Amino acid sequence: ALALVRAADRLLPMPLAPARLATRGYNQALELARQLAPARRIDARSLLRVRETAPQATLDRAARQRNLAGAFAVEPGRAALLAGAHLLLVDDVMTSGASLAAAAAALRQAGAREVSALVLARTDDF
After folding, report:
1. How many CA atoms within 13 Å lie on the side-chain side of 21?
2. 15 with 27: CB under 8 angstroms?
3. Of all residues in the chain, what percent are helix, strand and coil, respectively (each to 5)?
4. Which comes out higher in pLDDT, residue 66 or 126?
5. Rounded to two decimals, what is the model's pTM?
6. Phi then psi for 112, rounded to 5 degrees?
7. What is the pLDDT of residues 65-98, one digit of tens each?
8. What is the per-residue pLDDT for 64?
9. CB-CB contact of 10 with 88 (8 Å)
10. Which residues 6+ apart lie within 8 Å of 98 measured at CB?
11. How far, in Å, are 4, 18, 43, 76 from residue 26 at the CA level?
């Protein structure tokens, strides 16, 4: 895990939808990223969750992927910062990997050279 952190140019916490962030009051993935790297390497503004999605917990793998299609985008004014970079997505829990895959696709489309992921926990649901 530490090798992934060291190799990454930037750590991007998985973003929450605005309503979820308002309800929770904090982004747990951002709090994890803050424990892994200095603030200057953490980028919580480039990857956006651009639409609300249904809760993933009750969905099967295919439904999760459909649910997340188009849910993530790169902030247009920050895309140049990501071009050619090795990015590390940080999240708290991974179940099917659909959220991480959708976020990584948006980052690769913006020109990221490599996208890795680091999660605190993984469920056995899938």
Report:
1. 16
2. yes
3. 40, 25, 35
4. 66
5. 0.90
6. -60, 135
7. 777 888 899 999 999 999 999 999 999 999 888 8
8. 77
9. yes
10. 56, 61, 64, 65, 67, 68
11. 24, 11, 15, 24
